[in-house]
Amino acid sequence: MSTAGPGTAPGRPAAAEAAAATLADPDTPFAVVDVAKVLRNAERLARRADRLGVTLRPHVKTAKSLPVAALLHDAAGPGPVTVSTLAEAEAFADGGHSDITYAVGIARHKLPRVIALLRRGVTLRVLLDSPAQAAFVAEAAREAGIAVPALIEIDCDGHRGGLTPGAPELPVVARVLHDAGCLDGVLTHAGESYFAYTAGERRLAAENERDSAVAAAGRLRRAGLPVNVVSVGSTPTAHAAEDLTGVTELRAGNYLFFDLVMAGLGVCDLDDLALSVTVTVIGHRPEYGWIITDGGWMALSRDRGTSAQPQDQGYGLVTDLTGRPIPGLVMTGASQEHGTLTARDGAPLPDLPVGTRLRVLPNHACATAAQHHGYHVVDGTRTTARAPEIQAYWPRVTGW
């Protein structure tokens, strides 16, 4: 792994990145990824997908990084991925990925970029859930003289978009797409699984997700319509599914990094969290029981995803620079460039002088990663030093 290379983040000169030898060197705040944990998390879900007999289509929306996705490659090269923006689709196509699902409802004005990728030989599927979208996708495909493969979004739990398996519009949408050569399958996402706090609840969510997608596919097939793809997935259900009969592929994204929300659900352990943010202590307010750092919501995000969980983790849990949790220390407040650390349950504050570097484990990996241009990469299995060695700098894809 190289220390810096093409795509070094704007505002961070390549020379500065190359000179950063340990986590004691770069300007704070900055994002850190433990590559050993990413590899372990990736292998865990890959084994499950193999056992369930489905293709794993990782969602790159969390890391948004080609070097992270490269960890998932085998000898065959870049594999299938899911994206949340066309900027990701274009960047991953440039990086050699040719099988991409754009898993956000399509808008008409985005179709020229979709068609441009299709003309390059990239299989880029779009997602839709309405007759209006089906009509303009079919129209664009006919005008361009190229099929635009489309998946119909299925609503399995009322969480967001999609048609229910029994919706009267479902075969209508499918027929419009099929007549234009665009129907590719169905896709669902169990968004409510992010509120499943027991293993049993997550298994039920996974079963419902599967049943909804398979029922929708079966209904279309009985109407004489082809369904090649039956796609399901979320990080909680992907790790809970025990039977995916009738499903062709499994999607998940957060699992490569994990976060405090996933740990709070019981999907992972704290030691599985691969993303953190390094900050510096810049002050103390002993009269309030505060330690102040230079990492506010611009570095961690405003996400408070654990606030509804049994254990509220504030804006994040605090570790030392090696990644060892500091018992009871939580980031409980955030302004734009200031983070406030307090001790849980009135415990005494640890002695952390001004200048001390710490790492904060985030609530929501996707939101925290989005605050940064890239990741300083460490390998937690290779060092016991107080300041872990930086193995690489991995840029992220930004924009839409």
UniProtKB/TrEMBL annotation:
GO MF annotation list: D-serine ammonia-lyase activity
Endpoints of the signal sequence: none
InterPro entries attached to this UniProt entry: Ala_racemase_N (IPR001608), D-amino_acid_metab_enzyme (IPR051466), D-ser_dehydrat-like_dom (IPR026956), D-ser_dehydrat-like_sf (IPR042208), PLP-binding_barrel (IPR029066)
Keyword Lyase annotated: yes
SUPFAM superfamilies: PLP-binding barrel
UniProt record, GO biological process: D-serine catabolic process
Domain named D-serine dehydratase-like: residues: 274-379
Pfam families in the record: Ala_racemase_N (PF01168), D-ser_dehydrat (PF14031)
Alphabetical UniProt keywords: Lyase
UniProt cross-references to PANTHER family, sorted A to Z: D-SERINE DEHYDRATASE, ZGC:162816-RELATED
Family under the similarity heading: Belongs to the DSD1 family.
The protein's name: Alanine racemase
